[in-house]
Design goal:
Chain lengths: 114, 111
Amino acid sequence: NAGVTQTPKFQVLKTGQSMTLQCAQDMNHNSMYWYRQDPGMGLRLIYYSASEGTTDKGEVPNGYNVSRLNKREFSLRLESAAPSQTSVYFCASSPRGVQSEKLFFGSGTQLSVL
Amino acid sequence: QKEVEQNSGPLSVPEGAIASLNCTYSDRVSQSFFWYRQYSGKSPELIMSIYSNGDKEDGRFTAQLNKASQYVSLLIRDSQPSDSATYLCAVLQTGANNLFFGTGTRLTVIP
């Protein structure tokens, strides 16, 4: 059972380049999330999808877009990368919603924007 | 004021001792509280959740919640070197769809 799978694990971009981070879960969870983790800032929610077909902004959505492609997949797109987006990105899922639910995290993507 | 505050540490304890990790939160009506453990270079994993005042025990871990003081703690008894990690406190505000995470406390258990 793979759980939550993120790709790629590492990525280096130049300022202005675009890229998509992929996330898939095989646990039949309804809700999926994208977080970023920065030193001294903790984990911050970028976007989430409470269920297939819906997406909502989190704490730090600027500069990002998301797509909930189907129940399994939730992608995060950086249209024009900036150095401030250098971070570790985690995808997560939960069975129904974040209330009282355990989050299952992927292994993370280390992104550097030069 | 941050939603969730933790002492970043590092906190060092000898093997076999009790490690005490603390967390305060700003939203008085928060309902759900979680402790996640994150090993270096790995993703967070849930180790404890607590929803009502008092203590909740699970093996060597005890979570303590005091809503009047807006304070959550995690005690690790008989600390082992394998407990060395960063511990993240997370709080769910009433009506929110977002867990607010603290910055984490780095714990080192010295053999």
